[in-house]
């Protein structure tokens, strides 16, 4: 359950935690930083569930150069920017199709993985203890072909209002070898179409007053079965250094983390198909990976979360990691725009709030509750 006394500190943490999906591994081997991933133009959420952006985010209907090889039963590990947003993570597949690069993602998907609220912790906190990574297995019985893999983190800190839930979405392109036949996996859902802004798993009026997250199930229907074989349970996330292949041009050879704290309450891949070699044969080097948005993934030990029940961490820390050696570096996270105005989705008011109250052009300061107003 979520106590009102935790509201102010949790929302301050949440407002600075916009995020993107940047990198993934197949059996502990990565094609590289943002390789094979369709990156959106910003780290802002999708909030209109009727939009085609619900499939693969803004600009997500456009494919990227690289499609990464995998096989049914392989372990997939995804990594997101650090997040204080309480909520679940889910994974879906779109396909098989002839070309993942040409696929828009608008249409039929089936869920293969879900992590909600476990042992008093939401998925974002569980991932935070594992360098914002989450692991799961591709189901057996998949037909061979190319697919889009959709990773979704749903932020529920604004779910008490219709349209307040925030969907963070990223899609990767995979070429999967499997043993199933077409139509083997189901049930399927349509995106857009399957989500409704007033669904009980999206709109939660009592999210801060009596809501029991132990009974929560993420949107998107049940985890699918393929030829009668469902996806296995998620692989336990293990805190470890971020690993990238030594040959990856997108990975940083040396990085210098710069610690920054969010002021809170008292606590503190050009290849057409990238083969995924067995992990025992791969040359891997440990290195933290930079986020182009400035909201970097924290190195192990640099994440100090303490999320009580539903609340976002009141002692949340992030680490801003130096960018890969490509002549650019990420800017530090910020919540204000020009002339002291608050950026879209930033906090602009509420009890105990003392910051800027004027929103940047195109957004309006809207009260979500007594303690929190947001530029939307």
Q: Can you offer a commentary on this structure?
A:
Helix content is 5%, strand content 27%. With 376 residues, the chain is mostly beta strands. It has 2 domains: 4-334, Coagulation Factor XIII, Chain A, domain 1 (Distorted Sandwich); 338-376.
How many individual domains? 2
Strand count = 22
Structural class: mainly beta
Distance between the termini: 27 Å
Percentage of β-strand residues: 25-35%
GO cellular component, one term: extracellular region
InterPro entries: AA9, AA9_LPMO, CBD, CBD_sf
GO molecular function: cellulase activity; cellulose binding; metal ion binding; monooxygenase activity
GO biological process, one term: cellulose catabolic process
Describe the SSE topology.
Elements: H1 7-15, E1 21-26, E2 37-38, H2 53-56, E3 68-71, E4 75-80, E5 89-97, E6 107-115, E7 117-118, E8 121-122, H3 123-128, E9 133-137, E10 145-155, E11 166-177, E12 185-186, E13 189-191, E14 225-226, E15 229-230, E16 243-245, E17 258-261, E18 284-286, E19 317-320, E20 347-349, E21 365-369, E22 372-375
Main location: secreted
GO molecular function, one term: cellulase activity
Region (Disordered): 225-244
Keywords:
376 residues; mainly beta; Coagulation Factor XIII, Chain A, domain 1; 2 domains; seven-stranded mixed beta sheet; disordered N terminus
Summarize the structure.
This protein has helices spanning 7-15, 53-56, 123-128; strands at 21-26, 37-38, 68-71, 75-80, 89-97, 107-115, 117-118, 121-122, 133-137, 145-155, 166-177, 185-186, 189-191, 225-226, 229-230, 243-245, 258-261, 284-286, 317-320, 347-349, 365-369, 372-375.
